[in-house]
């Protein structure tokens, strides 16, 4: 029997109450003793999915109740936040994006999903593809930074890694692109806060990663907590139906964020839970992720009886959920092999991938030549993160265990010092400092995005020793690193690198691996620069330090400390001979940008060659530059390579005031370089 027929036959047998049950998701509190009622609801077929069950025995137990004890035997969706690993912890997504290697992200997502799948999870709440332009917001750590093009690439890769080609192959699961949409634009960088932006910004900047996820076949999307332009996302028909389904072509299931459905009332958008349920389902929400209040469960049946929600609307939502369960193969077999669940986690090949990912996820910010460490130097370690396993894992670490993590001290086997006096016998001190994982992630907005004072005091103290100082900074957001960079002879930066962190640092510090990460956010030089991002508009008074009447601050520099795309290597790269295959292309043509890159240093190294474009004159003001392509290449010491990057002129457009996507003729600057600030350029004229 084919899928449509199977689902039709099943739905023909379902009562309205059972249908509503499929749209109801409960938390894992069902395993609390005081929550017995959850099991009754489950037996009555009134719960279609659960959140946070990541235990194979419990998963099997719950599936058994759903399949054997409910009237229709419909298996459960079991959702879990597999953000950067299930048990094997990979680098946090933000820092993994420093690799500019989406295929790496595809592989780590796939490996994480394999572990989760073996443990009974069937729905992964990732990837997070919100654009983050404000370092105060704590959730940038889950995404891929400030750039739309790069985030879109990572969105596609991560969706493909989670879902594979076949959801029922036992290794891949349903992905969930989140949080729809504009969540990172919360005012003041304060989590859950209102976002208000022009429609053009929404379409140009925030929607494309979701389009990319939809095109990659993402099966589910999570609606965000906040209100955007006057409507809570979870109750917005404009966002969930007109845009997501209408314009982006999504035909999977939409789930609310945890409690974001009942919060529609708290936003002041609906009067009652009943009104909320009606508003949300009519807006296009399919599944309510409940957090204490169950607006669908408590109201939808009556709303259908009263004709305020059509049965067709209800059926559409139920069908999407059942199709997902069908495609996941849950009707054939909802159970997982308990023995295999433990066997499949933390495999040597998964650990090897975690190490590869960790090495690629680090950015060298400064180096006066002290790195890589010479063989004969005497090195000591310092800092609160030098031997702290938990900090290696980072936030949202799933089932990652601190005991699985390797610290720098363990990998390097070096002495740890804590004051300048202790440093006497050493030539180089490496301080592992930064922002603890407890300071980033959900709800962790900070007004003061700096390294905690105790860590800075240690750096100042170590500096007194007069020894060479290397600062290795771990952080979950763009931190203000001005002072630490001044005090240090070399600086490495990354987010939490996961269970293989120590080994990755060892490889980089000793030069066994040449760092090649590039920042995916602009790093401020002072706190008050937030929000900031490289692809801002030119303004009518672009900042010029010497001229007062230009767009800048009177008490701080306008320049960031490090620009988007920045990252050093143990070698140097020199760019020359930038050319394009056609300087007068027609709209719709594809052209090739080519540039010669020479490795002028003594180490083989990988470089991310970045292509930025500026539309010089347009019918709406356009960004100073926008990333439109890049290529990561290995260039042996002393060699030169010609790098060719295809540029589709269709991608040089934008949404105009009438919200039409247009590519306009005229001049475009084409920039090729090692960061968004250091490039050579040429020009094309689009006919
Ligand atoms: C977060 C989501 C997450 C959900 C379930 C929410 O608080 O915003 O990203 O998927 O919880 O854990």
Write the layout of secondary structure elements.
Blueprint: H1 3-13, H2 16-22, E1 24-26, H3 36-43, E2 49-51, H4 56-69, E3 77-80, H5 93-96, H6 102-118, E4 123-124, H7 148-163, E5 176-180, H8 199-206, H9 208-215, E6 220-223, E7 227-228, E8 231-232, H10 237-247, E9 253-256, H11 263-266, H12 273-283, E10 288-289, H13 295-305, H14 311-327, H15 338-343, H16 348-360, E11 363-367, E12 379-382, H17 389-393, H18 408-412, E13 428-434, H19 453-463, E14 468-474, H20 482-487, E15 490-494, H21 501-510, E16 573-580, E17 590-599, E18 605-615, E19 626-635, E20 640-648, E21 654-655, E22 661-662, E23 666-673, E24 679-686
Parallel strand pairs: 1-2, 1-10, 2-3, 3-4, 5-6, 6-9, 12-13, 13-14, 14-15
Antiparallel strand pairs: 7-8, 11-15, 16-17, 17-20, 18-19, 18-23, 21-22, 23-24
Helix pairs in contact: 1-14, 2-13, 2-14, 6-7, 6-16, 7-9, 10-12, 12-13, 16-21
The structure holds beta-D-glucopyranose.
Beta-D-glucopyranose (BGC) is lined by residues 51, 81, 125, 178, 257-258, 442.
Could you explain how this protein is built, in words?
The protein is α/β, with parallel strands linked by helices and about 675 residues long. The protein has 21 helices and 24 strands. The strands form seven sheets. The chain has a five-stranded parallel beta sheet with strand order 4-3-2-1-10. A five-stranded mixed beta sheet has the order 11-15-14-13-12. The protein has a four-stranded antiparallel beta sheet with strand order 19-18-23-24. It is globular. It starts with a helix and ends with a strand. The model has no long low-confidence stretch (mean pLDDT about 95). The structure holds beta-D-glucopyranose (BGC). Beta-D-glucopyranose binds near residues 81, 257 and 258.
């Amino acid at each position: 029997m084919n899928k449509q027929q199977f689902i039709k036959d099943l739905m023909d047998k379902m009562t309205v109450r059972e249908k509503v049950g499929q749209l109801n998701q409960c938390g894992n509190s069902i395993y609390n003793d005081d929550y017995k009622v959850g099991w009754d609801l489950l037996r009555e077929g009134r719960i279609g999915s659960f959140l946070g069950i990541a235990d194979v025995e419990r998963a099997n137990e719950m599936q058994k109740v759903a399949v054997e004890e409910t009237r229709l035997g419909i298996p459960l969706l079991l959702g879990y936040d597999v953000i950067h690993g299930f048990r094997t912890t990979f680098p946090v997504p933000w820092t993994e994006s420093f690799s500019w290697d989406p295929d790496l992200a595809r592989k780590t997502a796939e490996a994480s999903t394999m572990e989760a799948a073996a443990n009974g999870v069937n729905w992964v709440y990732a990837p997070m593809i919100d654009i983050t332009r404000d370092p105060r917001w704590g959730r940038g750590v889950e995404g891929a930074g400030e750039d739309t093009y790069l985030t879109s690439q990572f969105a596609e890769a991560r969706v493909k890694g989670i879902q594979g080609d076949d959801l029922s192959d036992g290794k891949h699961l349903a992905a969930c692109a989140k949080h729809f949409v504009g969540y990172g634009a919360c005012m003041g960088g304060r989590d859950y806060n209102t976002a208000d932006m022009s429609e053009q910004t929404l379409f140009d900047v925030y929607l494309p990663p979701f389009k990319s996820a939809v095109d990659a076949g993402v099966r589910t999307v999570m609606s965000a907590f906040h209100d955007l332009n006057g409507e809570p996302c979870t109750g917005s028909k404009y966002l969930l139906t007109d845009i997501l389904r209408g314009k982006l072509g999504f035909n999977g299931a939409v789930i609310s964020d945890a409690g974001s459905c009942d919060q529609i009332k708290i936003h002041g958008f609906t009067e009652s839970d009943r009104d909320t349920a009606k508003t949300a389902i009519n807006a296009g929400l399919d599944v309510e992720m409940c957090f204490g209040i169950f607006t669908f469960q408590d109201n939808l049946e009556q709303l259908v009886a009263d004709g305020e929600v059509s049965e067709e609307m209800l059926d559409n939502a139920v069908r999407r959920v059942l199709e997902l369960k069908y495609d996941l193969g849950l009707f054939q077999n909802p159970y997982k092999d308990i023995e295999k669940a433990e066997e499949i986690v933390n495999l040597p090949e998964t650990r090897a991938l975690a190490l590869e990912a960790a090495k690629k996820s680090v950015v060298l910010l400064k180096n006066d030549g002290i790195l890589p460490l010479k063989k004969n130097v005497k090195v000591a370690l310092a800092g609160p993160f030098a031997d702290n396993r938990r900090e290696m894992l980072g936030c949202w670490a799933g089932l990652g265990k601190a005991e699985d993590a390797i610290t720098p001290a363990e990998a390097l086997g070096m002495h740890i010092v804590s004051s300048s006096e202790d440093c006497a016998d050493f030539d180089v001190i490496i301080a592992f400092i930064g922002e603890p994982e407890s300071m980033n992630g959900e709800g962790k907005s900070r007004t003061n995005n700096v390294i905690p004072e105790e860590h800075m005091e240690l750096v100042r103290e170590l500096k007194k020793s007069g020894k060479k100082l290397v600062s290795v900074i771990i952080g979950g957001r763009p931190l203000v690193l001005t002072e630490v960079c001044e005090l240090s002879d070399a600086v490495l930066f990354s987010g939490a690198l996961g269970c293989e962190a120590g080994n990755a640092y060892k490889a980089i510090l000793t030069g066994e691996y040449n760092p090649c990460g590039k920042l995916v956010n602009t790093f401020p030089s002072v706190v008050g620069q937030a929000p900031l991002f490289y692809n801002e508009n030119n303004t009518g008074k672009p900042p010029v330090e010497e001229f007062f009447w230009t767009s800048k601050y009177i008490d701080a520099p306008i320049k960031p400390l490090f620009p988007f795309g920045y990252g050093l290597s143990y070698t140097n790269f020199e760019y020359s001979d930038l050319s394009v295959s056609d300087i007068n292309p027609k709209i719709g043509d594809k052209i090739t940008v080519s540039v010669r890159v020479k490795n002028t240093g003594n180490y083989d190294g990988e470089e991310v060659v970045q292509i930025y474009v500026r539309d010089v004159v347009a019918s709406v003001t356009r960004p100073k530059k926008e990333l439109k392509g890049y290529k990561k290449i290995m260039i042996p010491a002393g060699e030169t390579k010609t790098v060719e990057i295809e540029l589709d002129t269709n991608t040089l457009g934008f949404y105009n005031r009438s919200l039409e996507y247009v590519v306009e003729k005229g001049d475009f600057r084409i920039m090729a370089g090692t960061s968004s600030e250091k490039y050579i350029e040429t020009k094309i004229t689009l006919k």
